[in-house]
Design a protein that fits this description.
The chain is mainly β. 0% of the residues lie in helices and 42% in strands. The chain contains no helices and six strands.
Length: 76
């Protein structure tokens, strides 16, 4: 099994709707990003990409004020 932090966490943390959280993810160029986010009604939440079946998180980025997808993330 591949190492996807959110799915391999020992504490099995879940993300609650409308509750602020801190997320860390790595961009394709290797840059690490840390932001605050929230799951709103319009978010898709957790899922898997159709192209390669990798897990993703769709959330509202409170720092950049927009919706984002993260594919290699960890909730801090």
């Amino acid at each position: 099994m591949l190492d996807y932090p959110m799915f391999n966490r020992k504490d099995n943390m879940t993300i609650e709707s409308n509750k602020k959280f801190k997320i860390k993810y790595t961009k394709q160029d290797g840059e690490e990003v840390r932001r605050f986010g929230i799951i709103k009604d319009e978010c898709r939440g957790e899922g898997k990409r159709k192209t390669d079946n990798r897990p993703f998180l769709h959330y509202f980025d409170l720092d950049k004020k927009g919706y984002r997808y993260a594919t290699n993330w960890e909730i801090l």
